[in-house]
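Task card 7
Instruction: Convert sequence to structure tokens.
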Amino acid sequence: MSHGSTHHDVLPAFARDPEVADLIERIVARVEALQTGFTGARPADPARKESYDAWLSRNGGVRGRASLYPYVGSGAGRGPLVELADGSVKWDMINGIGVHMFGHADGRMVRAGLRAAVADLVMEGNLQFNADSIAIAELLVAEASKGSSIRHAFITNSGCMANESALKVCQQKTGASPRVIAFADCFMGRSTTMSQIGDGPAYRQGVVQNVLVDYMPFYDPAMGERSIEMAAWHLEQVIHRYPGQHSCFVMEPVQGEGGFKVAPREFFVRLMTICRKAGIPVWADEVQSFGRTERMFAFQMMDLGEFVDVVTIGKMSQVCACLFTEAMNPKAGLLSGTFSSSVSAFQSGLEALTILRDGGYYGPDGRNARLHAAFREHADRLVAAHPEWFPPARDSLGRAQPSLVGGVGGMMRLTPFGGDKDRIMKLLHAMFDEGVIAFICGHGPYHVRMLAPVGVMEPAHMGPVFEVIERAFRKVG
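Output:
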């Protein structure tokens, strides 16, 4: 069996039965027949308004506040299109902030979920697990080890827990060194520890501060080579100021929450080389970028494998993981957990990763790159046609940003209204009403953030998506 394949031996025992397998195929065929009506965005059914409002009220009551969007799914959809319980259909360009890489009710994911439904377990853990847990870990290690020394994977149930695991691995390796180095504007998750490392004041408001973090400036394209020199200078200063006290430098190869910022390879090489010389482990946080760039791992896209000691991934993989080299392999007892993930997540994740690995998604002419090119084509056209919606976006120093369209692969951003947060939030709500779901990112300037379902979305879909976006602009512009 090849590592990470969906070979017969990885299936739950009951799913191997020919009669059960036939029933699964019949269900998938029926679901696909029911999807024919999902061809584009459509408005809500007025007859469902009362019941929909009741669901929204119940959600706000039990949660203590309303959700960002009035979203309650019906449980139906087709690829990048999702139906809400009010009967409306929307283009889903955020996918649960990147989780639903294969969109909604994709036949391959439905099939994987049905296989999981006949398994003996609902959840797998670090004490008892099935073959799919081994297979997905093997697939991740096999892919991550291409050009790197990554050899092991610890599977866990969230990106935040993958990051918690990575921090523990790094701290143990460095003898409980108390400090962490991270990039400004990073996002790490919302646990007590990760909310302190993440550079977002709202995420740690009211939380006791007990994590020591030194923030480095991320690459500034307006400064070019000088930006690399500045970041290197800052890094050497904190290492000199706190010698032997840093457990790791956690780096997002592509910043997600920070604004879909990218940097050239030279930027990372300079900083990673300094870390290597100082004995500071390099941790690549790819919870958001994993699977979305022109390689399965963004660190591979920039040929940084020789420097990477620890990698964390999540979201589109369904299960999450902390991967590490043999040298970083922790002592027994440090990493464990009652739940690693659900059987459904293992089966769906294994299917998704196998498709992404073998389906022509990567490389300069892969599906991810072609989808991003289509996004840029439509976004650039919108910017050129409506300069009134796209004044210069200025940073905290008053400098105009070099581009209003950015990102890489399935990570896409657009910067209207000079990056003004309030106006962008109004636009996002108008987009939702019109039929496109997106989100916000950045910290001034702010941006419209899209995480397209690259597993199922085609370049041709960008046309109708931008038609809806333009209608939303006209409502708020």
